[in-house]
């Protein structure tokens, strides 16, 4: 296999272990948690191996006898490990002792301490555009949050079709290395494994797997939208008389969240009357837009042809535009995470005012619109200016992310950035 692909979390993980005793890396299967953790670990225990799980169950002190940092990979197979690490940290708070990686949350019945004050949690996602190596970013989220000025123009060599390719290429390191044919098979297998193996392994048997697949397809069609879960369920079961209940689909949704397959962006709710009544519905995204494209049976060529979207009916924007927004959202989640910031979306005044993303770090804010186009009009930035009038200096930057070739500052102060040139 090819060598390790560097990740933005590498330096963050090393930095955390310099001052903290234990870090838990969460994320979906295949995002690269184990490989990243192995870059810092001196000892590794693969807890999903039965003999290792049995040893740890009968001899919890084993974790104290190994050379730190100790990597406990897939720790959720022995849920009590969480409490064992917490107790070990209580007796020895030395930094850099443990890294835990898990691709699922433990069962609800497992009585686990929160780990507060002992174990810091770090969310890892599929590879961002910066990590995929499309180009060297010239605009970094950190600088935007710091209020840095940008006056230079820079070219990107990434063309429109390359962004469509990245939607379907996947951010899972092992999957993106494959050719189109094998990548498609792997993505199908990934989804099948979630439904037919991960659900039962977590204690939930799915009586009608095809209905769950249909729900996932409807959720994928809702990418970058705020459709209600009732609308998603209705779209998934159109024409069926024996529909699953809202309780059942709620359980599915909770399980998919535990497996880190859903990655919604929550609504930004500042609690300021200057904004009027705000929508609290999250924007829907899967962990990887390639999974959404696969569920909708869309190839790179079909995305380029601009197919319609008949799953949920009329929605704002084309499915290609919404999946491109999903690609940008995935990258922004990574960039926000390594900058100790959070990603939100904004929707107010009955939907008449919307901003695709707001990055918040303390009192510093960056507002971002996403355009499946190389050009930006005054109409495209009107909501950014409306938001800026209400936030004042707290809004450090107004940005439009495009499929264009140049970084430039508009005369109205909006920074235009090709997606490939935006980084952490």
What attributes does this structure have?
424 residues; alpha/beta; Rossmann fold; 7-stranded mixed beta sheet; 5-stranded parallel beta sheet
* Number of separate strands: 14
- The poorly predicted ranges are none
Helix content: 25-40%
Number of folding domains?
2
Distance between the termini: 28 Å
Mean pLDDT: 91
The percent range for strand residues is 15-25%
Shape: globular
**Largest β sheet strand count, sense and barrel closure:** 7 strands, mixed
Strand order of the largest sheet: 7-12-13-11-10-9-8
Cα Rg? 22 Å
Count up the helices.
17
Counting helices, strands and paired strands, the structural category is alpha/beta
How would you sum up this structure, described in words?
The protein is an alpha/beta fold and 424 residues long. It has two domains: 115 residues, 3-Layer(aba) Sandwich (Rossmann fold); 295 residues, no CATH class. The protein contains 17 helices and 14 strands. Strands 7-12-13-11-10-9-8 form a seven-stranded mixed beta sheet, with helices on both faces. The protein has a five-stranded parallel beta sheet with strand order 2-3-4-1-5. A two-stranded parallel ribbon has the order 6-14. β9 and β10 form a beta hairpin. The mean pLDDT is 91.
Topology:
Elements (H helix, E strand, L loop, with lengths): L8 H11 L2 E5 L6 H6 L4 E4 L3 H9 L3 H4 L4 E4 L6 H12 L6 E5 L16 E5 L5 H4 L6 E2 H6 L7 E2 L4 H10 L3 H4 L3 H22 L7 H13 L7 H8 L9 H13 L30 H7 L4 H6 L13 H20 L3 E7 L4 E9 L2 E7 L11 H10 L3 E8 L3 E4 L5 E4 L3 E2 L1
Parallel strand pairs: 1-4, 1-5, 2-3, 3-4, 6-14, 10-11, 11-13
Antiparallel strand pairs: 7-12, 8-9, 9-10, 12-13
């Amino acid at each position: 296999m090819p060598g390790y692909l560097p990740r933005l979390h590498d330096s963050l993980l090393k930095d955390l272990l310099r001052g903290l005793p234990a870090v838990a890396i969460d994320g979906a299967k295949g995002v690269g948690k184990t490989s990243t953790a192995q870059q810092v670990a001196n000892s590794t225990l693969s807890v999903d191996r039965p003999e290792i799980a049995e040893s740890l169950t009968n001899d919890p002190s084993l974790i104290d006898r190994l050379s730190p940092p100790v990597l406990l990979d897939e720790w959720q197979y022995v849920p009590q490990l969480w409490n064992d690490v917490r107790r070990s940290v209580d007796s020895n708070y030395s930094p850099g002792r443990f890294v835990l990686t898990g691709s699922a949350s433990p069962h609800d019945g497992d009585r686990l301490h929160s780990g507060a004050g002992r174990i810091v949690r770090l969310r890892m996602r599929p590879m961002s555009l910066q990590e995929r190596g499309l180009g060297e970013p010239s605009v970094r989220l950190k600088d935007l949050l710091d209020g840095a000025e940008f006056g230079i123009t820079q070219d990107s060599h990434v063309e429109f079709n390359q962004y469509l390719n990245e939607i379907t290429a996947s951010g899972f390191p092992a999957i993106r290395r494959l050719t189109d044919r094998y990548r498609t098979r792997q993505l199908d297998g990934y989804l099948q494994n979630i439904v037919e193996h991960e659900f039962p392994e977590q204690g939930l048997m799915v009586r009608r797997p095809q209905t769950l697949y249909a729900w996932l397809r409807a959720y994928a069609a809702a990418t970058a939208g705020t459709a209600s879960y009732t609308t998603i369920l209705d779209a998934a079961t159109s024409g069926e008389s024996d529909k699953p209940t809202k309780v059942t689909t709620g359980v599915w949704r909770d399980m998919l969240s535990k497996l880190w397959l859903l990655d919604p962006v929550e609504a930004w709710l500042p609690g300021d009357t200057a904004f009027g009544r705000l929508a609290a519905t999250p924007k829907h995204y899967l962990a990887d837009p390639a999974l959404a494209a696969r569920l909708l049976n869309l190839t790179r060529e079909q995305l380029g042809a601009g197919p319609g979207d008949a799953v949920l009916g009329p929605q704002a924007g084309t499915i290609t535009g919404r999946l491109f927004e999903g690609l940008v959202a995935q990258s922004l989640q990574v960039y926000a995470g390594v900058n100790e910031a959070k990603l939100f979306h904004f929707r107010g005044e009955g939907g008449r005012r919307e901003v695709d993303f707001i990055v918040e770090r303390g009192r510093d804010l960056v507002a971002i619109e996403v355009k499946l186009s190389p050009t930006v009009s005054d109409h495209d930035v009107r909501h950014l200016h409306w938001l800026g009038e209400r936030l004042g200096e707290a809004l450090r930057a107004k940005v439009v992310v495009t499929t264009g070739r140049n970084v430039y500052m508009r005369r109205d102060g909006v920074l235009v950035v090709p997606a490939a040139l935006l980084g952490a």
